[in-house]
Amino acid sequence: MTQLALVIDLNVCVGCHACVTSCKQWNTSGDAGPLPDDNPYGANPTGVFFNRVQTYEVGKFPNTETIHFPKSCLHCEDAPCVPVCPTGASYKRKEDGIVLVDYDKCIGCKYCSWACPYGAREFDEHDKVMKKCTLCVDRIYDQNLPETERKPACVMACPPGARLFGDIHDPDSEVSSAIREQGGFALMPELGTQPSNHYLPRHKRKIPIHEDELVRVDSPLAKEEKKDYDEGSASLEDSASW
Amino acid sequence: MSNTSNETIEVKNTTCYMCACRCGIRVTVKNGQVKYIQGNPEHPLNKGVICAKGSSGIMKQYSPARLNQPLKRKANAERGDSEFEAISWEEAFSILEERLAEIRRTDPKKFAMFTGRDQMQALTGLFAKQFGTPNYAAHGGFCSVNMAAGMIYTIGGSFWEFGGPDLERSKLFIMFGTAEDHHSNPLKMAISKFKRDGGRFISVNPIRTGYSAIADEWVPIKPGTDGALILAIIHEIINLGLYDREFLVQYSNSPHLVNLDENDDNFGMFVRNQEFKADEVHPQDQQWWDRNTNQAVDTHTEGADPYLLGDFKLEDGTPVKPAFQLLADRVKDYTPEWAAKITGIPVQTIKRLAHEMGITARDEMIELPIAWTDVWGNEQESVRGNPVSFHAMRGLAAHSNGFHSIRALSILMSLLGTIDRPGGFRHKAPFPRPIPPCPKTPNGPQGIKPNTPLGGMPLGWPADPNDLFVDEKGEAIRLDKAFSWEYPLSVHGMMHNAITNAWRGDPYSIDTLFIFMANMAWNSSMNTSEVRKMLNDKHENGEYKIPFLVVADAFQSEMVAYADLVLPDTTYLERHDVMSMLDRPISEYEGPVDSVRVPVVPPTGDCKPFQEVLIELGSRLKLPAFTTADGERKYKDYPEFVTNFETEPGSGIGFLAGWRGKGGEKFMRGEPNPKQWEMYANNNCVFQYELPKSYQYMRNWNKGYLTWAKNHALTRYTDPILIHIYSEVLQKFRLAAQGKYAGKQPPERLKERIETYFDPLPFYYSPLETQLSDTNKYPLNAVTQRPMAMYHSWDSQNAWLRQIHTYNYLYMSPKLGEEGGFDDGDWVWVESQHGKVRCMCRFSEAVEPGTVWTWNAIGKAAGAWNLENDANESRQGFLLNHLISEELPAGKHGEHMSNSDPITGQASWYDVQVRVYKAEETDADHSLPQFKPQKTVPGQAIRSKLVAFFAGGRK
Fold first, then answer.
1. In A, residues 117-146, which contact B (CB 8 Å cutoff)?
2. Which sequence spans correspond to the domains of chain B?
3. In B, which residues are within 8 Å of A60 by CB distance?
4. What is the DSSP string of B581-625?
5. Domain at B82-143+436-571: CATH code
6. Does the distance separating the beta carbons of A226 and B38 come in below 8 Å?
7. CB contact, 8 Å: B216 with chain A?
8. CATH number corresponding to A4-74+134-200
9. Exposed, middle or buried: residue B818 (CB in 10 Å: 0-12, 13-18, 19+)?
10. Rounded distance, CA B647 to CA B668, Å?
């Protein structure tokens, strides 16, 4: 059974927000749209975004890490937002594991957003329906798009290529091997939600320095030692009689 | 184009302009409305990716901040009141034509044109030159001219548009303070791939955000001290012999002998073989000391092996040393222990950085099987490189000691043998260029004549004191005093002083100030509150001190409020543009690349591309480049101009390099091609030429490349571009200050300044502002950064981007709160010797504790950019510029010296010293200073309370 998901590489994410607004522009005019913005030019603007980047600092100066953390619906394998929905609007697709909301059935009761431990759902106060990441379901199967573009908008946009997309149930997929080989982890696994989206951790590269490698025998400094040019001057050679 | 269920869908390629990165974009337009902007996967720059700004172009296109009609200030309104009446373009042009024709007929320098981050300096510069005014510059002087000048005067190229780190093959990458919104997508892509390929990334920065966040190591540094760190690293590298001797000998002036006879007028100059004809771009008349024959020989003599260290005497008794010895002497006392105290970086870290760089460069050499020929005719079997690379931007540049810091960095890169080699720094066309590049300004008042084009370029590259643009007393001719003895190598001009100087009438008053796309009444000016007063200041007779102010912009910036005449520009989606080889193209390491924009939607309202404004004005004013021999208009519009303009009749060089020649069969040079635009449009709006592999490296000294570049009009010379470890150019200015150089002499008050700062070798000094500040009272450095999701001030009108950065905090170490008795999120005052700002603090462990910082240009004046008066940008947001002066306190060098680098005139944004203390609740419930809310102007769209954007209408 297929389970589509995003795998986000925190080792290269610079927190640029490309995923945030590329998602917004695709989805606001797509099947899940619009994604309204209240008070767009006034005080405390607030809008619907399916994907947001949070920034955290970890540790004390100077041992500080700054973590950029993009977050959207994790498309949990055991999604707690689905069983709480009184109308069946919130559902998980059998064919690819994407968690979606059927706006026609949604009554805007917000049970699902209370149930989601990740805060990944976004309520549209104007259409009075719950909205959320669809993994760009209106892109990824679109036969009119070239195959290379049948990916979520955020994945297409991401400049450092920090967002991988694929089937985490296929052990040979790019996402599965990234999780397996690079220590991919899920958020709050203790809750048993089995998030499909995973994150790849930071890792550090060091260059070991060995003291005895600092100066080599062929150091260019050796070249700078002055030659003894005074070949004509007197020496023992001239007067000794041994 | 497709039609289904009455939908019209169009997809067009063009070039982004949400920042200066210039990525290729593919725009989907549905029923005439922009639906989706994606990265163009076929574009060489961004290969399909797009950033947060690029993805938000829709909200820029439909922003209510857009200007839609030409406007004239109402007769009784004050500047700054934002009271305008809409006028026709014909009226706007008539006003300008009459006024500018009179200025041009009488005294062309009274017309001053300064532009922001416009990407069309080829055209604006041409217009200014044709008009005959020297008073033209773009934003470079207050952006990063130290980076351009420091590197170009050393290695003949610089970072960003003209060169960068070869991360594809690098193993160690060190980044110094870099704006996160610049060259952003290519850099993000490259850093990511570099890390994944196992490279080590070190970030030297007072702050850990953005790129620094993913660095393997963060080295926090005190602002303005990078020069000390780099000089100490050079000290360590030289002491341990970790430099690439072979590279320095062959490709730099390291072994060249310097005259050290203090009584000689040529003291500090390279000794020359008098039999050679002196030619400043031709280094072969200089001398080495050959260790095989123990005598001075011409450089690059076959079989010679020069000393880099030592001291020698010429036959006539003249004492000489190789330039490298002078560098070693210079850095002798710049020990890691010395630098640790200045930079705040531990001694062991400084040493380790040097060792990592030196050992990686030495032991990880790359050798590519690419044969090439050097300019001395030696056939080389391979291209070699040492995989250590660097990148730096304003963190180094925006200090008054930035030029020498950047010279030091360029020298470090050279010592490691990394210039235009795989894994190191690589050039992008049209660089490398001779040191210095050839364009020159006029060198005296005779260059300015009524009704005549300027007798030189408005901006140039002085090679010696006689190239300065000064009058017979040695004083400035340009309004901004660029190219004067005050800031001799101000190669990008000094826009940051233009308004203050025009207001004061020093060096003279002007008539018309024309500002394009620069927010000089807000974030693009230092000393913002005072500059706003200057813009509105009058003589006793009621006349404005700056008589006429024209502002061209697409958006209602703070500057618009001060205009007498407003010319509404289009967005980037509505016009033709060129990213020209004559300006700053988008070239890649492998060869020249330029690109265009084509309109994807029609202009909104009555706005007009600024280029069309210049073509129209140029035609009406009968400027030679825009008119035929009999005075008729030469070009119908900008696209026609681009197609047909040649730098000289028949030169075959125009704004675009691709598809030249009658049928598009030529490139770089060729006759105009009437179908050139079409050919660009059909090719992703980009022209790319990939050089043969043998021309892609070592271009400073590559015979094949230099010959190719000459044949394709990229350069005039094929002489080797030797790296200036030792700068004779700087020494010439020092000699002039000492009265030892024939020709122009600095005025008395500036002699000591020139002598001090025009040091042929890099040295470290505290930033000028720091020297003139009470650092006990103001112990902290205050700096700004720009976030990746905003470009300058441009995006607060963007409904999506402003939700990412709605207002700004002052970030600081929690220690400051403990000491000052305030908590995270409290209101504080941040105060410099020039003023104070009330703002909110945010504690951070990701900042060096002696530094406070904020995101630049998020804070806005109330009502500007058509935001509501209570928008967070003006109530909680703030602008640090109020604390930064455009001038230094009066001193021995003059009463009104610019707060700039004494060599290049680079604005010293990051030199300001501050203190921070708790603000009382009773002061206010918002940030301070506040300004009278700016009113909307006629023709602007109504701000809505809700945007539920659905392109082309909802189903």
1. 126
2. 82-143+436-571, 156-430, 728-760, 772-918
3. 845
4. TTS----BTTB-EEEEE--SSPPPTT---HHHHHHHHHHHTT-GG
5. 3.40.50.740
6. no
7. yes
8. 3.30.70.20
9. exposed
10. 12
Q: C-alpha angle with apex B259: B257 to B260, nearest 5 degrees?
A: 120
Of B270-284, B327-341, B805-819, give the lowest mean pLDDT range: B270-284
Size of interface A-B (CB pairs under 8 A): 254
pLDDT of residue A191: 97
Q: Which fold has domain B772-918?
A: Barwin-like endoglucanases (2.40.40)
* Burial of residue B52 (number of CB atoms within 10 Å: 0-12, 13-18, 19+): buried
Topology annotation, domain B156-430: Dimethylsulfoxide Reductase; domain 2 (3.40.228)
Residue B496, token pair as written in the block: 């940051």
Rounded to whole angstroms, how far apart are CA atoms B490 and B501? 16
User: Is A24's CB within 8 Å of B55's CB?
Assistant: yes
Residue B34 parent element (H or E): strand B33-39
Residues 55-74 of A with CB under 8 A from B: 57, 59-62, 64-68
List the 8-27 stretch of A: residues with Cβ below 8 A of B.
Answer: 11-18, 20-22, 24-26
B466 vs B712: CA distance, rounded Å: 30
Instruction: Say whether A64 and B180 touch across the interface (CB within 8 A).
Output: no
The pLDDT tens digits of the residues spanning B487-498 come to 999 999 999 999
Do B937 and B846 contact (CB within 8 A), yes or no? Answer: no
d(CA B638, CA B636): 7
User: How far away is chain B from the Cα of A63, in angstroms, using its nearest Cα?
Assistant: 8
**Closest chain A residue to B38, measured at CA:** A157
> Which tokens is B137 given?
């510059």
Identify the closest residue of chain B to A31 by CA–CA distance.
B955
Cα-flanking dihedrals φ and ψ of residue B129, to 5°? -60, -45
Q: Which tokens is B722 given?
A: 């030797």
Chain B CB contacts of A200 under 8 Å are none
How large is the ipTM?
0.96
Q: What is the CA radius of gyration of chain B?
A: 27
Best mutation target, A25, A182, A218, to test chain B (most B CBs within 10 A): A25
How many beta carbons lie within 10 A of that of residue B901, not counting itself? 32
Query: Which of B575, B582, B580 has its CA nearest to residue B687?
Result: B580
Q: Report pTM.
A: 0.97
Residue of chain B whose Cα is closest to the Cα of A220: B241
Interface test with B, best of A11, A22, A50 (most B CBs within 10 A): A22
Chain B contact for A228 (CB, 8 A cutoff): no
| Beta bridge pairs of residue B388 | B172
Measured between beta carbons, the chain A residues lying within 8 angstroms of B307 are: 224
| Domain spans of chain A, in order of start | 4-74+134-200
Residue tagged 């390099």 (tokens): B657
Cα(B393)–Cα(B158) distance, integer angstroms: 10
Is A94 an 8 Å CB contact of chain B?
no
Name the residue among B50, B214, B799 with its Cβ closest to that of A45: B799
The string of pLDDT tens digits covering residues B514-525 is 999 999 999 999
pLDDT in tens, B362-407: 999 999 999 999 999 999 999 999 999 999 999 999 999 999 999 9
